[in-house]
Structures are given as C-alpha cells and as structure tokens.
Design goal:
By secondary structure, this protein is α/β, with parallel strands linked by helices. It folds into two domains: 118 residues, 3-Layer(aba) Sandwich (Rossmann fold), CATH 3.40.50.2300; 95 residues, Winged helix-like DNA-binding domain superfamily/Winged helix DNA-binding domain (Arc Repressor Mutant, subunit A). Helices cover 40% and strands 21% of the residues. It has eight helices and eleven strands. The strands form three sheets. It has a five-stranded parallel sheet, with helices on both faces. Strands 6-7-8-9 form a four-stranded antiparallel sheet, with helices on one face. A hairpin with a 4-residue loop joins strand 7 and strand 8. Helix 2 runs parallel beside helix 3 and helix 6 packs across helix 8. It is elongated, with a radius of gyration of 18 Å. The chain starts with a strand and ends in a 5-residue tail after the last strand.
Length: 225
C-alpha cells in the first residue's frame, strides 16, 4: 500500500516513516502543505496521513482542496490541538479519522489499517477469498488453514490484489501502489512475483487464484467460501 505522509516535524516524520515501512507500507514524504498537495494530486495513494498545522498550506485547506478535486483516498489527520472544534473542522473538510498528539504508533497503524480496509469494503483485518486468507494486522497468509511464508514484496502484491478482488490491475498500477519510484516498469519483476505467488499459494493449480489477462494485467479471482 502506498501512503502519503505530510508532516512538518521532521523528527516525527522520520519516526513514523520508519514504523510505516516496517509495517510493509510504501511511504512518500512531504514537509509542507504545498508539496503535499502536489503529491496528492499527481500520484496514486491508498491513504494519507496529514498534520493540521502545516506551513505554506495548512492541513485543513489541503484536505479541502484534495476533496474538491475528487481525490477520495482515506485521510487520517494528526493534530496537536485537543479541542473538539479542530477535530470537527478536519472531519468536515473531508478527513476520515484523527489522532491527537502525542499518540502511540500502534494506534496510528491500527487506525490506518482500518481506514484502508473500509475504503474497499472490508471491516475485518482478516480477509478471505475461498481458501485464501490474509491478516492485514499480523501479515499472516494462509491457504486451507496452512500458513504460507511470503517475502515482503510477495505479500504487498497479494494484499493489494486481495483488497481489490475481481478487479483487473495493470503492471503499472501494481508498481505505483506497492513498489518504489525507481522500480523499472519495463522489467519482468511483477511477472516473477506473480509466478512465485502462484507456486507458493497454489502449487497444484487447483484454485487458480491469480488470473492473467494479456495486455491488461492481473486479477485475483473471486472464489466462493
């Protein structure tokens, strides 16, 4: 999942970035509202974390501008102001949730996970599709109740496809959402990861989890329970 983190406190920004990367997120950083607005309108994100007290463009104005441009990824606001009016202003601007500083990183990760899940219609951190199951909190993957060991890159690809089950995702879109900007779009690495996932999740080919649509991309097939 690709996140936008807009925070002008560089110490907090790096602290959060470190924990988010450890939690398997791909994070783009901005230190002011102007940069955050550019990134938020130019790149595809699965969610954003935005501080209210930003230089150049404040967080409330940034959120209002993003929503006015019909950019609808979930937004979690951070505020040092423990006043209900500030929380209401953020939510009214278009944010989906808020945290008051100081906070525990574990709570931020839990709220962020929930926002992303809800944005694609999933209420529980445990997401199932037929015999396939992932836990977006623990990052555990199971097939027919058997735990499957995946690399970080394999998990990111599987999670994104499962959160968009039944939808065709191009190689470019997969790269934009789950891999770094310097990832080579012309390489065959996505194909390699797909092959690895098929081998690990379905070595006998009995489920056919991931479908290839030539010229279009990949799709995680919707399976009955």
């Amino acid at each position: 999942m690709r996140l936008l983190l807009v925070e002008d406190d560089l110490h907090l920004q790096q602290h959060l970035n470190s924990h988010l990367v450890k939690a398997n997120y791909l994070v783009d950083l901005a230190s002011d509202g102007e940069t955050g607005l550019f990134q938020g309108t130019e790149y595809p994100y699965d969610a954003a974390i935005i501080d209210i007290g930003l230089p150049k463009i404040d967080g409330i104005s940034l959120i209002k501008t993003l929503r006015a441009q019909h950019i609808d990824f979930p937004i979690l606001i951070l505020t040092a102001r423990d006043h209900w009016q500030d929380k209401v202003s953020g939510l009214d601007a278009g944010a989906d949730d808020y945290l008051v500083k100081p906070f525990q990183v574990e709570e931020l990760l839990a709220r962020l996970n929930a926002l992303i899940r809800r944005s694609v219609g999933q209420a529980s951190p445990i997401i199932s599709n037929g015999p396939l199951q992932i836990n977006t909190k623990s990052l555990e993957v199971k097939v027919a109740e058997q735990t499957i060991q995946l690399s970080s890159s394999e998990y990111k690809l599987l999670e994104y496809l499962l959160l968009h089950v039944g939808e065709v995702k191009s190689k470019a879109e997969l790269t934009e959402h789950i891999y770094n900007e310097d990832f080579d779009l012309d390489s065959n690495v996505i194909e390699v990861f797909v092959r690895r996932l098929r081998k690990k999740l379905d070595p006998q080919g009995q489920y056919g989890f991931i479908e290839t649509l030539r010229g279009h991309g990949y799709k995680l097939k919707q399976l009955n329970e």
